[in-house]
Amino acid sequence: MIKKISLLGCTGSVGRQVVEVVKRYPDRFRIVALAANEGGRLFFEQAKELAPEFAALRSNGGEDLPLPAVTRFERGEQAFEEACAYPSADVVFVAVSGFAGLKAALLALSAGKDVALANKECLVAGGHLVNAAAAKAGAKILPVDSEHSAVWQALGFDRRAPFEKIILTASGGALRDVPKEKLPQMTAKEALAHPTWQMGDKITVDCATMLNKGYEVMEAMSLYGVPLEKVSVVMHRESIVHSMVAFADGAVLAQMSYPSMELPIQIALTYPERIYAGVPALDLAKLGALHFSEPDPERYPCFSLALACAREGGDAPCTLIGAGEAAVRAFLRGQIKFTQIAQILESTLCRAPRGAAGDYAHLCETEARARETAETFISRYGD
Questions:
Q1: Residue limits of the 1-deoxy-D-xylulose 5-phosphate reductoisomerase N-terminal domain (predicted)?
Q2: Distance CA 130, CA 110 (A)
Q3: Strand order in 252-256's β-sheet?
Q4: Which residues are part of a known binding site for 1-deoxy-D-xylulose 5-phosphate?
Q5: pLDDT for 236-259, tens place per residue?
Q6: Is the full-model pTM beyond 0.85?
């Protein structure tokens, strides 16, 4: 039986790799709906090649290119929402970036769709809403982030299985070997040169600051229903061990492979069955050694700020997301220095009011207010 997929965020890094997985096994998978925020030639090329039933662009501007006769094409927020809960889809693949992933996941789960989740922010900001929507609809959340896919695999694809501790691994990003005193001079180009992973710009910068690892700690807390004390992080520069789970008897299970997002993408669609994912077999003898160490809080202040938000709870993680969106965008545009990302996050968190995580509307307000507050600090640094 062919699994039908609605792919949200089809033109992004993860979305493009989902398309490659689907093309590898056309007898197993079919994309019935495609959605992206903005158009461009890639979106229309994907729609032309895949011939989905429905194609949606969230934005109303831009050029429209010819599509297959079988594909209905719409623009606007309503079109995006339709793709999020597309009726004939068996699974909705949430590969959109940022806070927008929360709305996408909630719409899909509320429609009773299983969600393959490749968006960190929705669980960080609104994990309580996502879990409640999944429970109410009897739908599944399938982790796609490489770290959380690794944990899920180590638990035998059972997020409720007992364990003692989750151990997330972190590469340290593109600037991990740069002397700390030189970090203020690092450019966006240098921060985007990740040594082991090919990812989108935002997440690659978040990897360099390790803000993404703080997000992943909060993801783990939400996905596996555990307190912060049951999640730890170790540095692992080779990016071979994608995460580990420790058990009561002292055993630790690790999921290992060469770095490739196509493996966690595919396993979310085929579990518990494993089939070729385009990843070569791991050659441990050739690797020779794997290295692990503790994170350096002086090098990665964004990671420390994220852990503080995890301890505080409420809407603090949502505030962090909004501030992070604004700060990283400013860095990529050359408006601020690399080290000023952490300063903007801290300043925004200090100024922002605190409250319960609340409902979706409250989280939207919190995230927007955090972005606005961060922009005021960005403008000062740019002067």
A1: 5-127
A2: 9
A3: 231-235, 165-170, 241-246, 252-256
A4: 120, 146-147, 171, 194, 212-213, 216
A5: 999 999 999 999 999 999 999 999
A6: yes
